[in-house]
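Batch job 17 of 40 flagged for manual review because the log was empty.
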Amino acid sequence: MSDHIAQLPMYDWPEVRPATDALWTEIRTALQKRGIASPETLNRNEATETAWLSPRLLLSQTCGLPLVQDLRDQVAVLGRFTYQDLSAAGDYHSVIVVRQSESIDDPATLRGQRAAINHEDSYSGSLALKRWAARLAGETAFFASVIATGSHRDSVCAVANGLADTAAIDSVSWCLAKRIEPAAQSLSIVAKTDDRPGLPLITRTGHGTKTLASFRSALDEAVKMLDPASRSSLGITGFVPAHDQDYDVIHEDLQQFGTTALC
């Protein structure tokens, strides 16, 4: 029995957890075929931020912003999943959503409105929104106020329930929300942000080149072996190997827009 930590936390909504567990079963099988001991189940108890830096980390998924801001040289990037209707390179974007009842067509009319973000350390929910708003507002703050909701799903609900007027929702979360979260049905997309590399799968540092190659081939095999129902539920279509430097574009966004005030 392995005491390593394995997590797939970033899109682990309760409604798709059986599919996430099925994905982990395939990953575990593929890793063990390559001689890499793996825990039987995903660890959903340890805080992700703690797990990312744990010497026991076997596999997790993080966001590009924490990767370039806090985790560089402390984790090894393995790659990223690709998702239905998104880039074959594993890129993603954010959608800027509003209530359908507001009939907003011009994104510029969101100036002076209330925004929701999931976390300050989220690329798709916060930094991507800063970059998008800065291009419209220049040096001045674009929004009247900002609330932090804790998750993309909660940001969807905040806009739908009138606690905020807009939010940036990562495109994978938006696909999940449209299928699972009733509040999403009252929202529409008014704009999209530019593509950026999708959420990186990571392991601890210290693995040799051959072991990292085994991780990557195991992840590729696991996605191919995953049953169609689980693939559809998660929206996953493939795996693309990646490395730390592939996320330099997010570091550049952080340098340019990290201090931008949303309000």
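Reviewer: the log was empty due to a logging misconfiguration, but the result itself is present. The mean pLDDT is 96. Unflagging and moving on to job 18.
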